[in-house]
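User: Here's a chain of 228 residues. Predict its fold as tokens.
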Amino acid sequence: INPFIIGPDADLELAVTDVTRMRLYNSGQDCLGPDIILVHQDVRESFKNLLIKRLDQLVFGANNDPNANYSPIFYKDTLYSVSEYFNTNDKFIIYGGGIDFRTKKMEPTVVYSELDENLEIIEYFSPVFNVVIYRDDEQLIKRISSSYFSERAMGCSLYGSEHLSDVLRKKHTLTINETLEDVDQGNKPFGGYGTMSNYIFYDFKLVSKPILISEIVAEYLSEKRSLV
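Assistant: Prediction complete.
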């Protein structure tokens, strides 16, 4: 899910810049893209206005167009599944929502709801900004700690509300005022502790933790040699 959490004391300009960059990376077709943007109710209007202003400036173009901010969706299945999601949840769309099946263009779209409304969270793989408003820390942590979020815990980006960092770090690779892309290094373990996002299963044992694939393979080969 890779939640973006935007607290009441967040630098909203930075938060909007970063969430737009991450949600539109490869036009949203990337596993690090945030599938939920949790915004404190005190800054809901300011955040919404800044985000829509930023989206108004975006340019659609071909993948090789250096001036394009987003490009055609590659997988046709994504167009079908997201269009069905839009149709089901049309009342929550406050910006965008258009899909051109001929050009494979999907407009940057803002889906806007309250946390209590329990809008379904999917992995969009498209330029969809799922903005969800939360009331307070208690409500936020209760949802982040739920089984649905915990099982999918990989990365989390926190803007403001830094007092929540210790709780969030227990399950996630946590970034503060920067994105997962900013901290990802190919030679270090990465990820969280969700069994649906980061796990190793070997010899009937399942371990969930941040993973560096080359390191895990080396450990496996070393163990295998020691048994011979």
